[in-house]
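**Backbone geometry record:**
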Amino acid sequence: MEYPKGKILYREGDIGQTVYLIQAGQIIVENDVPGYGPVTLVTVGPGQLLGWSALFPGRRKVATARVAKPVRAIVINAARLRDACHTDHTLESVVIRNVSEVIADRLKATRQKLIETVTSAQEPPRK
């Protein structure tokens, strides 16, 4: 699939049904912070996975994904991938390992963004 700049792939609170493997382009994953506006948590590009929470039924998206540069992606139906993992445990192992790495990387990036945001919002100590 191809998506133009500005396209919203999903919004915070949506229930995901697809996982995206980005081939080209760039997607911004952001949260809208009340009283502050949108904050970019991470930028996703070629070779990266987006929408991993769709692999966990009933989980809602915790951020919004917006196309920053036109994207070409492989779009995977999450329910079908889950079913395939139930019957092919080698596939399941590969998916779990890769998704775990993505989750760890996103958590690290989100933590770093939180530190940067809080640090820049605070006034420097007065002498």
Q: What stands out?
A: Helices lie at 78-87, 89-121. The longest helix spans residues 89-121. The chain has a mean pLDDT of 90.
